[in-house]
Design brief:
Distance between the termini: 7 Å
Oligomer: single chain
CATH topology of the largest domain: MetI-like fold
CATH class of the largest domain: Mainly Alpha
Shape: globular
CATH superfamily of the largest domain: MetI-like
Order of helices and strands: HHHHHHHHHHHHHH
Radius of gyration: 25 Å
Number of strands: 0
Strand content: under 5%
Number of helices: 14
Largest sheet: none
């Protein structure tokens, strides 16, 4: 197992190298950038240099006057030293802005991922064990409704009902008006209150896919020969489902759950924007719209690392949930 993990880590480094090369190339080929905007603004000032002169000066300052490969290797060397530069949009170090926004998105996504698994997996199992019944049809309809609902529509509906009509929650923001006057517990409850609607939005939109995936895999396992053999031996239905069938259903679910790791840190762009939450998703969107190459490069590289790590964790967990899997 240790040898396998080391080999996968080395392979992941090679993959990361080429992924970052692609990302850097795409960032360098953006049709607009922060540098162009700044050069245009400065060139319009009275007695200023021309736009071309400002572009040449700023490009040299940010190592954009070299070829893509040369610039990439310079950036790669700085990345290995943990130096990602300053954000052009936020005018502070990239890692500082990342640290300011990541924990809100991480907290929100951990909460939603927990409830997504707790709700979707049991409902998927129930739908599979009661195939073609009213319960199965009801769960399937709810799952398809969740998959089909646009995020902006469902979020707006929740805000209309619970914020405008009932007044239970604020329309947007992370804290209320009287946040500074509250004690520690009051501040915690105030932030928790502002995260209720965003979390509900993400949960409802997300559980449908996992629910259908669980149902499909559970049905495949229940139709296997060894399940019929277990029933023929006189085992109880509960033991057949939860001891034999469910353990084998976990194998494909591990792949899905392992793939959720990048989502814990990527943020929910649309949800964070609709509820005006200062998370990493909204920060990344603003940086990409503003042509902020340093922050965008860091963010996309971070997601690539998490994706590779999630795949490695999923492969290792295969041996945990399935004793038949042995990695030589």
């Amino acid at each position: 197992m240790k040898k396998y993990i080391v080999k996968r880590l080395l392979l992941s480094i090679v993959i990361l190298f080429f992924v970052t090369l692609i990302i850097y190339t795409l960032m360098r080929c953006l049709p607009t950038s922060y540098i162009e905007n700044i050069a245009r603004q400065k060139s319009m000032q009275p007695g200023s240099k021309s736009f071309e002169e400002w572009m040449e000066q700023l490009s040299a300052m940010y190592n954009l006057d070299t070829g893509i490969l040369t610039g990439f290797f310079r950036w790669w060397g700085q990345m290995l030293r943990g130096n990602f530069g300053d954000s052009w949009v936020y005018t502070i170090p990239v890692t500082e802005e990342f640290n300011k926004t990541i924990w809100l998105s991480f907290t929100m996504n951990v909460i939603t991922m927990f409830f997504e698994i707790v709700i979707a997996v049991p409902l998927g199992i129930i739908a599979a064990t009661k195939q073609y019944s009213r319960t199965d049809y009801t769960i399937s309809v709810l799952a398809l409704a969740g998959i089909s609902l646009p995020t902006f529509f469902f979020a707006s509906l929740l805000k209309l009902v619970f914020s405008v009509k009932l007044g239970w929650f604020d329309l947007f923001g992370l804290v209320g008006r009287n946040y500074e006057q509250l004690d520690a517990m009051g501040k915690f409850l105030d932030k928790a209150n502002h995260l209720v609607l965003p979390c509900i939005t993400i949960i409802v939109i997300s559980i449908g896919g996992l629910m259908r995936y669980t149902r499909t895999n559970m049905l495949e396992v229940l139709n296997s020969d060894y399940i019929r053999t277990a029933r023929a031996k006189g085992l109880s239905e509960r033991k057949v489902i939860y001891h034999h069938a469910f353990r084998n259903t976990l194998i494909p679910l591990v792949t899905i759950i392992g793939g959720m790791l990048p989502g814990l840190f990527s943020g929910a762009l649309i949800t964070e924007t609709l509820y005006a939450l200062p998370g990493i998703g909204y920060a990344a969107y603003k940086s990409m719209v503003g042509g902020d190459i340093p922050f965008s490069m860091f963010y996309l590289t971070f997601l690539a690392i998490l994706t590779l790590l999630g795949n490695l964790i999923a492969d290792v967990l295969y041996a945990v949930v399935d004793p038949r899997v042995r990695i030589e």
